[in-house]
Amino acid sequence: IAFGLQERYDLLRWVEYARNRFGEDQKILLYGISMGGATVLMASGLELPHNVKGIIADCPYASALDIILHVGKSMPIPQWLMKPFVILGARIFGGFDLLETDAIEAVKHATVPILVIHGEADSFVPASMSAPLVDANPTLVQRFTVPGAEHGISYLVNTREYCNVIKEFMEKVL
Hints:
The chain is an alpha/beta fold. Helices cover 46% and strands 14% of the residues. Strands 1-2-3-4 form a 4-stranded parallel beta sheet. The longest helix is centred in the first third of the chain and has 16 residues, at 7-22. The two termini are 31 Å apart.
């Protein structure tokens, strides 16, 4: 697991597979929840095939390093000490650079519309982590928050509104 940094390239390979299997004219919408949401956002900065029409990210984090440090707050190690070891560990054991990119930087270069959904009561990936994504590309990113929703359950907390927002987004981009 590379927190979306390497998985974004796997995602591109899946898009290519779908294009080859179902045809290059099939419209594709990328959708991910949590780390999957961060992954589709990080892929947004890559050169996507023309038939990728939009991205939906539910409760994503904007930075792999930030979410690791946020989760690490429960550990008895000071953040200032943890940060260099997390970065070094990712490089040595994972073979990737946590500082290479983040979702905010990728979204700045996005060329397709993006819908970000986040539960306002999310204690695992706080909703504040997805807020800067709108500022990164305000013409392409819209954000929908669900009051009272914890991590990854916005659909369950407000199914009707969740489905309506996604339906409107899909009608716009497809």
